[in-house]
């Protein structure tokens, strides 16, 4: 049934949506259902979803394999505490993750969301050094323009100035932020591009627990693609100065950048890996933080005798069952060919935007397409224009970007991209 005007009014008056104001909140677009790459609205219109529901719905909506996994599991057990108990969905999911992630990551911590995965990674790094008898190593190095989540620890390693969390800067843990790599993806490493990192690690290594990065692709901090060679050198420098490397692959994991994990572009393994978003194919929230046997055993041998974290819904069987189905689907299908096809199509279909006077840059990597503008757009003004084009795109700041489901057809990709360009043309008047 379509949402009533009373329901929509209640939503507007009482429900806080992401990054929204309760003073004159923008109207919400009511959804009735979704299937494949289309979101069906209450009024019968359909939108091609260019966002994959914030990058998570890689197989499309209402997928029969994921539906079947959810139905089968909910009849067994939807949730049971993970403290003292275990179950097949968590065991098999952890087995899959150990097998498919970069080498050496064979200890798995399952949690609730991407932000919590980052919190867990930060706590792992700090507790590791504490167990090593070096409690002074408790700070993290992060890149400017980075984004790692909205909880307090995660906010502290986001960009402190241009990020979304500047107003909390006075109460967050004070971390060390260095310039992001200047070398773009596909370019030879610029001389001196790793100097800031090396100087920081050399001068402050005795208080730094870890370097945290979004490998290759900085997401919400600017949709910026940087050199794999920089990441390769960062791995070397972390080893040299005894600093752990945390890879936040919440956005890039499971094929989005053209590699199964973005770290593979550089041929490196991090000490700690954060995963989320596409882990369940976008069906429900779940995250995983993986680390090495050495780190896991060092923490466990420390004073606490265990790792000090344990969410209520850790290892949720329903989420793990769907994640298992999603990863099986990913492995059985030729995801690389699909992502490569999308990359080729986005490159061709978004390229006309480069001729618009308001456009600063157009870039594509894997199943990620970005149009960077000279000036920020008003989301409240531009969102309805995209809906009129029959597409769902949610820009932020100067960035109009898409991360479509891997199952999107070439025809739908063309419609998505041409709709974006029509809207940008209209904004130029």
TrEMBL record:
What is its subcellular localisation?
Cytoplasm
Binding positions (substrate) = 54, 147, 277, 310, 394
Q: Which SUPFAM superfamilies match?
A: PLP-dependent transferases
Query: PROSITE patterns of this UniProt entry?
Result: AA_TRANSFER_CLASS_3 (PS00600)
What the entry lists under NCBIfam families is as follows:
bioA, PRK05964.1, PRK07986.1
Protein role: Catalyzes the transfer of the alpha-amino group from S-adenosyl-L-methionine (SAM) to 7-keto-8-aminopelargonic acid (KAPA) to form 7,8-diaminopelargonic acid (DAPA). It is the only aminotransferase known to utilize SAM as an amino donor.
Quaternary structure, from the entry = Homodimer.
Name of the molecule in the record: Adenosylmethionine-8-amino-7-oxononanoate aminotransferase
Species annotation: Marinobacterium zhoushanense
Q: What is the lineage of its organism?
A: Bacteria, Pseudomonadati, Pseudomonadota, Gammaproteobacteria, Oceanospirillales
Gene designation per UniProt: bioA
């Amino acid at each position: 049934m379509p949402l009533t005007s009373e329901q929509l009014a209640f939503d507007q008056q009482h429900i806080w949506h992401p990054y929204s104001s309760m003073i004159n909140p923008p109207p919400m677009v009511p959804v009735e259902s979704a299937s494949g790459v289309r979101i069906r609205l209450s009024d019968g219109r359909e939108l091609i979803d260019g966002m994959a529901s914030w990058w998570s719905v890689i197989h499309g909506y209402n997928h029969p394999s994921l539906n079947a996994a959810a139905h089968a599991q909910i009849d067994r057990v939807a949730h049971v505490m993970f403290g003292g108990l275990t179950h097949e969905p968590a065991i098999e999911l952890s087995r899959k993750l150990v097998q498919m992630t970069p080498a050496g990551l064979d200890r798995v911590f399952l949690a609730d969301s991407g932000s919590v995965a980052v919190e867990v990674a930060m706590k792992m790094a700090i507790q590791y050094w504490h167990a090593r008898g070096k409690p002074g190593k408790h700070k993290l190095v992060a890149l400017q323009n980075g984004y790692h989540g909205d909880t307090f620890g995660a906010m502290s390693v986001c960009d402190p100035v241009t990020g979304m969390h500047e107003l909390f800067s006075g109460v967050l843990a004070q971390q060390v932020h260095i310039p992001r790599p200047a070398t773009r993806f596909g370019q030879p490493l610029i001389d001196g591009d790793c100097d800031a990192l090396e100087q920081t690690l050399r001068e402050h290594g005795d208080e730094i627990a870890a370097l945290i990065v979004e490998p290759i692709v900085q997401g919400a901090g600017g949709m910026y693609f940087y050199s794999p060679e920089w990441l390769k050198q960062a791995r070397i420098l972390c080893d040299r100065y005894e600093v752990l490397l945390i890879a936040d692959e919440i956005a890039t994991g499971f094929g989005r950048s053209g590699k199964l994990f973005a770290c593979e572009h550089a041929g490196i393994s991090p000490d700690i890996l954060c995963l989320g978003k596409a882990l369940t194919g976008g069906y429900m929230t779940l995250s995983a933080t993986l680390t090495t046997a050495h780190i896991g055993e060092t923490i466990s041998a420390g004073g606490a005798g265990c790792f000090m974290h344990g969410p209520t819904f850790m290892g949720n069987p329903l989420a793990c069952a769907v994640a298992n189905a999603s990863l099986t689907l990913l492995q059985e299908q030729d995801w690389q060919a699909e992502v490569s096809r999308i990359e080729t199509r986005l490159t061709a279909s978004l390229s006309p935007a480069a001729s618009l006077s308001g456009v600063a840059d157009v870039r594509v990597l894997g199943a990620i397409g970005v149009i960077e503008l000279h000036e920020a757009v008003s989301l409240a003004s531009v969102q309805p224009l995209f809906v009129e084009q029959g597409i769902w795109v949610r820009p932020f700041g100067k960035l109009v970007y898409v991360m479509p489901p891997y199952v999107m057809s070439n025809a739908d990709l063309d419609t998505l991209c041409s709709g974006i360009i029509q809207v940008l043309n209209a904004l130029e008047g």
